[in-house]
Amino acid sequence: MAGQLKHGVFGNLISALLLIATSGHTQDMNKPVGTEYAFTVLTEDSLEIRVQADLNALQRPVSYSSLIETPVCDDSLCHLVLIHLYWDLLGNFYRYEVPEDRPLTKFDHEEFTQKDHDKLYEILANTESPLRDYRKTDLIDHSVELKSEVADAVSGATNTTIKDDVIEGALYSTYTLWHIVNGSIAREILKRTEASVTPQLLSHMLHSDSHHEQFYALTRLDANDMTNSPVLLELILKGKAYVPLFAVQKLPAESWNSREYQEKLFSALPVMSFELQNEIINKLSGVKLSPAATAILKDNMNRLTEQQRLKITKVIQHP
Amino acid sequence: MEAKRRDFLKTLGLGSGLFFGDPVTLFGKSPEEAAQEINKEVFAIRKYETDLVVAGGGMAGVCAAIAAARNGTKVILIQNRSRLGGNASSEIRMHISGASALKQVWRETGILEELVLTEAVENPQRSYEIWDYIMYDKVVSEANITLLLDAIVYDTTVANNRITQIKALCSQTEEIYEIKARFYADCTGDGTMAAKAGAEYMQGREAKSQWNESMAEEVADKKSMGNSLLFTSSRHDRPMPFKAPAWAREYTAKDFVKRPIRQWEYGYWWLELGGLEDIVKDGQKIRHDLMATLFGVWDYIKNSGNHPESANWALSWVGLIPGKRESRRIVGDYIMKQDDAIKDQQFFDRVAYGGWPLDDHPPEGMNGFGLIPARSIPLAGPYSIPLRSLYSKNIKNLWMAGRNVSVSHVALSTTRVMATCALMGQAIGTAAAYCKQRTLDPAGLTSDKTALSQFQQLLLRQDQGILGVVNADPDDLARKTKVSASSETSEGLSVQVIDGINRDIKDGKTHQWRADLQSGSQWIQLSWDKPVSINRIELTFDTGLQRFLRISPEDSVYKNQVRRAQPETLADYKIEGISKGKNTALVVNEANYLRKVVHDFDTTEVEAIRLTALKTNGDAYARIFEIRCYLEK
Description:
The complex is a heterodimer. Chain A is of the alpha+beta class. Chain A is built from 14 helices and six strands. Chain A has helices spanning 11-17, 114-125, 142-147, 171-181, 184-194, 199-206, 211-220, 229-238, 243-250, 253-256, 259-268, 274-282, 291-300, 306-317, and strands spanning 5-6, 34-42, 48-55, 61-73, 78-87, 93-99. Chain A has a six-stranded antiparallel sheet, covered by helices on one side. Chain A is elongated. Chain B is of the alpha+beta class. In chain B, the strands form seven sheets. In chain B, strands 1, 2, 3, 4, 5, 6 and 17 form a seven-stranded mixed sheet that branches. The longest helix of chain B has 21 residues, at 283-303. Chain A binds chain B through residues 128, 130, 132-135, 138, 141, 159-161, 187, 215, 219, 242, 245-246, 248-249, 274-279, 281-282, 305, 307-308, 311, and chain B through 214-215, 218, 252-254, 257, 304-306, 308, 338, 342-343, 358, 369-370, 372, 375, 377-380.
């Protein structure tokens, strides 16, 4: 079945999400090579959904997925939507696929545009969406519908407070999918993962493509565990979004004293974000700097602010 | 020897008069005997009897006390601080939020509006202590209010499910107040008086399943939203170094990923903690944790290097009283829930409204690593608050207003803000007065449909923020008049001053008379078929309710505010009575800035009244929402 699914539409999006290629722990360990049945949930609309775990070569789950056919109904009509959904180990939605011959449609069977797909991805990934707290019956502002003399009585007017949180013309599809994606399936996945947290799993998460998983592991890591230092260094240097800011705080004291680490960090200093530069500089008090690393630091001084230079000079003079 | 002893007594301040006649008695006794003679009756007992005790002088308590007093009720207002205003006072400095968050037309009216309009005029310097004083002035100017500051209610006597007496203690004056009243209003925020009296209450967060609330928890718990401590800082003309105390917490950039630092002249949103602890009983610890957090965050701003633009900034004020968001919620005859906020239920006993989003904060607060600090669900419009949520279910003479009313945890996330609390205060203060006159209990008022609708009319007449109630006051003689005007705009027809609606309600109509003053003064006239006697005229003016108007330490909050008399408001006007072709001056008013103005004068027989609009506070148009006329006994 999966073979019939269309991957192209989301190729760019997915590659944007692939965060880093890490060393040591091979990327292959994140690659699903098989699947197994994980669990079944019953949604509020009494839809039975089977969820499978996607397994790597070691038979450990690396993600979860489900091919779902769900009815989407408005006031008068229902149609079936077929979609393949994927979650990470924490129950965060991270992609979907739809078959070429069963595209997602809007009002009057108009097909989703690329822009609609991008927006749908954004909406489904937002666990805090206001859609969480609206009932299906509150999606339409009936007071507007009643007053309107021109509007189609069936379509009504989308409740203004959620207008930005749905795809125009696909109100009920967005709503139905958001609740499948972020409902009991997501909670069940998180529950299963939390029940099996080990240092190995945390280490695996650090190597994962999902910044949610990286973040989850970083907040639970033992700061004195040297075994993760290489991946932490990679996350500091190449991690996306706020991941480096967490990784920099988890790098063990011993690694800060390593010449290799110092050189790698100081060489990259000029291309780092201003905040990350400061986080690194603030970590240097009490660190024994190697002469080679000190030289790199000095070389890069002219690309830092005066305040940063002052702090570094202090460290170099009074280690 | 005697001389020496006399000197000694002098230094003690005892060596004079009668006492000196028998000094030996003091020195001849054992310490135990001497101690027995010292007057240990340190606390004086003061007994009071009154109509209404209001416990708590925050925005809810202040508005409750003023409303009750203005309706002829004797009130004792007990506040445990030296200042009124609670979370809004200079001691905590939270700005008063409310339905202005809808960004529509729904700024709250009534006593709160009177307070904030006055503050905008009298406090252009934005001094927080002056704001305290404005509340103080409004309260002490009411002859019916006895204000007991620095006093805390610590005991209640209950008989037959009624509070019969409370005791309060003032440490500053060493007084104990024993107060008997017909009604008691718990505006303490924590519901302290109600809990002490055995009123049923809720605490913690309910499960989704309890009331079918999607924002509620999967499983009920005892957690709450946390407390917040605020600070202010100001910019200087030279670098201002800062060294954090040893007990300050340490923060790094990762801690601000989900809580970005956007400004620091007004605290940091949010220094919030305590939601995982007992928010009341662990208060001493929570306060210190917040202090450690506050100085830790300031240390980060000043010394991390990530905010170099803070170099010339220094702390100018640091709060010591955490502002509370949530503690006890007293159970009333109705418990408001999530749905009651999402859609206006038009409760039959609606007496106030809210409009802040459903804005729940995770109990972890600043300890919630990587959690967003709040989840805010905007509302489409304002929602009504029923009177049944503002009195206790099991203590028959106990009202509540403020955050301690009968709402679910989820509903609290919107009702908790102070403008909403202030409206509740005006509602119960007025209700207490009405019930006293009618010898009704709170529950009796909601079950008597005639009395209830008369009470809602009273609220509306006194400019309370209340939804969907139209002037149907049989005593309002203006309703039977024919209206004419020297001029009117197409959207501001003169007849709208008696259309029963005293504000913009977002229905496409202005509900006000509007006349262009650029060509000179304009008049509006109300004429009766046959002469009537009147001695009171009540006016409702436009004060720009579509804007936000509040004191705040945050500069950006003032962006769209007008910090003086609101331009739309009619400043100078006169009213004449017309009888047998002769005009008699009834009212002359200058420099008005209030929304609701009441003019009393000697009873006069008139065939018509004519109001001449002379000058606004800046707007080109004279605007009047409503004119009412009465013959008061």
